[in-house]
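Name: Phosphonate C-P lyase system protein PhnL
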Amino acid sequence: MNELLVVNNLEKTFMMHHFNEKKIVGCKGISFSLDKGEFIGITGKSGAGKSTVLKSIYRTYIPTGGEMIYHSDLFGPIDLVQATEREMLTIRKAEIGYVSQFLNVMPRVTAIEVVAEALVEMGEETKKATEKAKEILQHFKLPETLWTSFPRTFSGGEKLRLNLAQAMIKKPKLLLLDEPTASLDNASKEAVKEMIIELKANGTSMIGIFHDIDFMETVVDRQYHLQDGILNEKVNLSS
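Structure predicted for Phosphonate C-P lyase system protein PhnL:
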């Protein structure tokens, strides 16, 4: 079996308790499969539910329907819809990474500590983790003068590069990318592309949301478009 993740009829409905229990459908009927080492790109208009799909897989949003069978190294086949919070925390720490444009870190932790800690959590010795953190921060062209600074002072592009470094240094089994090239210049985009290619070569599977179609088409294997709650495969780019 080559499938890493199989999503069947995923649904996420938000209950607006302050508006007479109004329900808002974030996504529904989402079905697709992701093979090991494959990269799927998802496009669609703002508000179509793309980020909802990724956050449901990562379980920062708790799905309200469907199933997501993920083939975990730690737990074997596990339904991420039904997984416990403890199971999800363990899987996130060791197997699934998430990159967004927004940075959520402790207020008085430096950039290099943010990246190194991702490896320390996985059992890496602190000194070695710090050396690897330096290498990946250089790769993503985050100025060395910022390494010992607090990320809350960073620009949007700098925060995104730090997010990419923090997630990719772990070489996760599954990596979820929410607009991974937003706010980046061409040189930084090339660094992202190089790291994506390296991760794919080492077996990482990825799902990414993109507005930068030109960039997406250089890295993904399959492309889906999300519209009106329906996810349709557009073209097989690897054929």
